[in-house]
Amino acid sequence: MSIRPIITAPDPRLRQVSKPVETVDDELRALMDDMLETMYDAPGIGLAAIQVGVPLRVIVMDLAGKDEEPAPQFFVNPEILDPSEDMNVYEEGCLSVPEYFDEVERPARCRVKYLDYDGAEQILEADDLLATCIQHEMDHLEGVLFIDHLSRLKRERVLKKLKKEQRLAAAS
Ligand code: GNR
Ligand code: NI
């Protein structure tokens, strides 16, 4: 297992639409293991493959609290089913948009159909933080970032700051 670098906005790779996985094999499991290690190291609660530069429809997640046992979850080719009419607002952050947090409104509940770590089909009922996080990660698979749900003014302010920081980091 190894920690891979996380791509940050406005890197154009984050705007790619990720491709479906054809087979859940050992090579894919090696990617998922690396993603999980990268996510824990960051630290974050979810990570999409495109955030480490791999344009495949793969997500890892762990919503366990600090004092709980790790509870990794793997989602291959996930699909959102039956998003609820009622919405939920969560303060979101993103490892690809470092040090910025803001409120995003999304369906409060949904079902997720996906292949698990072993390639078996699963359906999961998601609410609360799980529903928010899975929808945030699904957005990544479509090249969408949480800041795209904010006003243009906010989004451009965040992107401008990130560009400036990257310019300064490159110069030092
Ligand atoms: O670590 C993360 N925290 C988080 C908090 C609220 C809503 C979504 C997230 S996902 C984020 C990690 C990440 O960028 N995943 O793509
Ligand atoms: Ni993210």
In short:
With 172 residues, this protein is an alpha+beta fold. It has helices at residues 26-41, 128-141, 152-171, and strands at residues 46-48, 58-62, 72-81, 87-94, 97-107, 109-115, 121-127. The protein has one domain (12-171): Peptide Deformylase (Alpha-Beta Complex), CATH 3.90.45.
Characterize the structure shown.
With 172 residues, the chain is an alpha+beta fold. It has one domain: Peptide Deformylase, CATH 3.90.45. Helices cover 29% and strands 30% of the residues. It contains three helices and seven strands; from the N terminus they run H-E-E-E-E-E-E-E-H-H. It has helices at 26-41, 128-141, 152-171, and strands at residues 46-48, 58-62, 72-81, 87-94, 97-107, 109-115, 121-127. Strands 1-2-3-6-7 form a five-stranded antiparallel sheet. A two-stranded antiparallel ribbon has the order 4-5. Strand 6 and strand 7 form a beta hairpin. It is globular and about 45 Å long. 31% of the residues are buried. The model has no long low-confidence stretch (mean pLDDT 97). It binds ligand GNR and nickel (II) ion. The site of nickel (II) ion (NI) has 5 residues, from helix 2.
